[in-house]
Structures are given as C-alpha cells and as structure tokens.
Design goal:
By secondary structure, the chain is an alpha/beta fold. The chain is built from seven helices and six strands, in the order αααααβββαβαββ. Strand 3, helix 6 and strand 4 form a beta-alpha-beta unit.
C-alpha cells in the first residue's frame, strides 16, 4: 500500500521514504541517507506531532536525531533488546509518523494554527463579510467563506490576498491582483513597494510566473520580521504544491481539509501549504 499521508506523498511520493517503509537498509539517520527532501518531510512531521522546533533544512543533524529519539521513546518504538530508542528512522518509525500525520491531516487544526479548517474562520462579525457580486464562491449563507484561509497572521506589515474576494478582510488583508486581465476591479500589486508584506495568501488561483515574482518582490525581508505565504487549492482544479511553492521558502505546515459536502472524494479536499519565506 505504501505511505498515505499528504506530507509524505504530495506532490509526488518520496522514493526514499517509501523504501524506508519496507527495507531495513533504507533507514534514515545522521550520515545514512541523511540529506534531502525526505529528511525535510520527517522534520515537518516531528514539528507538527511533537512541537520539536526543528529547522526544516533537510539535514539530519544533532537536533533532528534528538527529536527522533524523543519521538520513539515516547511511543515505545524499540528494536528487540533495546532499552531506549536509537536515533534512526526505520520501518516502524516511518509507519508511525505516517499514521499520525494522516490522522492530523484529516482532523481539525487548532485555532492557534495557520489556516482555518472550516468555512467560519476565526470568531468575527461574519455578518459584515462581503457578498456577491464581489464574492464568486460564497458559503451556504451567501457570504465569503473562510475554508483554508489564513488565521493568526504575522501582521507586522501589509497583509495581501492575491485574487481574494474579501474572505480575509476581517483579518486586515487587502485583495490585490498581479495581472491586469484577471484583476476584476482589484488594485494591482505593481503599485506596492518592495518588501511591504508580512503576510501573503493565494486561494484557489493558479500561480503564474508573474504572480510568483510579485510574491517574492513584495515579501518582507527576514531582517525586518519576514513574510508568511499561505496557499490553498482544491486538487480537482490544481495539483499543488509544486517546485514553485517550495522555492519560496520553508514549508512549516501542510494540511488536507476534507470537503464537508464530499467527504469521500479526496479530489475535492482542500490542501493548504504554509511557507515561511526566505
């Protein structure tokens, strides 16, 4: 069957992780298959499951080894004859990480997370949220719905929603467009100064090269607080994330949110990726 969590299988299955699931010689540790995308995904898993606080750099160093050891000890993942866990990700460990992340992806993220797991968003005066014609895809109440939209933004500078339709107004975001032909009355990001945004989101819109370049241009430098980018989409419309999203920075959260109207159809699940930009 192989691995099943979005973290370990999207956008493509990581062959090193798949090998680790079935082969003892393919285990992962310091100096043993210890650099690469597969390590980055393990680090994200440890951060999300155990709040390990790892730098997601794709390198299996001392801190990652410590986090693996703590994870295994906490769950009793021991080889025969072991009294305490080793610092290697092998078959049992990768299966445990995959199982737990799969459950997490299908559950409701905490309000302290980075994206809204429901159409409601954070508590706010929803009766003030916009309606059609500004909103093209309203929720069941006819107002902008907030599924997969950012919550708890950094908020140290401008907050920009590219091709938004008012779903993040209540958090202080402003809707912008990056290309005139798709603006539909939104102001253009080309009017913004470099490095002006601490939070940028795109939801259910493709990422063209123009849009990616504008995201990089307006993102606030890490020297003055950094920028968080949130991208969400329906798999039926867009296959995400891709190298374009990964090129923007370090992925700090990945979530799949089931469509409540179609819980048995994974193609309409909403996938959200949160990136701390370089």
């Amino acid at each position: 069957m192989g691995l099943k969590s979005m973290l370990f299988t999207s956008p493509d299955r990581d062959q090193q992780l798949e090998n680790c699931l079935v082969s003892d010689p393919a285990h992962i540790g310091a100096g043993i298959n210890g650099i690469g995308e597969h390590v980055r995904r393990i680090q994200i898993a440890l951060n999300e499951l155990d709040d390990a606080g790892l730098d997601v750099d794709g390198r299996f160093g001392q801190d990652t080894g410590d986090a693996v050891e703590d994870y295994k000890n906490a769950r009793g993942i021991l080889a025969p004859g072991q009294d305490s866990a080793d610092r290697i990700v092998g078959k049992g460990t990768i299966k445990s990480l995959d199982d737990e992340i799969d459950v997490l992806e299908k559950s409701t993220p905490l309000p302290t997370s980075f994206v809204s797991p429901t159409e409601a968003g954070l508590p706010h005066a929803h009766q003030l949220c916009p309606t059609p014609p500004r909103v093209v895809n309203p929720g069941p109440d006819g107002r902008a719905q907030h599924l997969g939209s950012p919550i708890n933004p950094i908020g140290t500078a401008m907050k920009i929603n590219i091709y938004g339709e008012g779903e993040t107004d209540y958090l202080g975001f402003t809707d912008f467009a990056t290309e005139p032909e798709h603006a539909s009355g939104r102001p253009m990001t080309s009017t913004l100064v470099n490095g002006c945004a601490s939070d940028i989101c795109v939801r259910s819109s493709p990422l063209s090269e123009v849009t990616l370049n504008e995201i990089r241009r307006i993102a606030q430098s890490a020297l003055v607080g950094g920028c968080r980018f949130t991208y969400g989409s329906n798999q039926e419309l867009f296959k995400t994330p891709r190298a374009d999203i990964l090129s923007l920075g370090t992925v700090i959260q990945q979530h799949r949110i089931a469509d409540p109207a179609n819980p048995s159809n994974p193609l309409v699940d909403f996938e959200v990726w949160v990136v701390d930009m370089f």
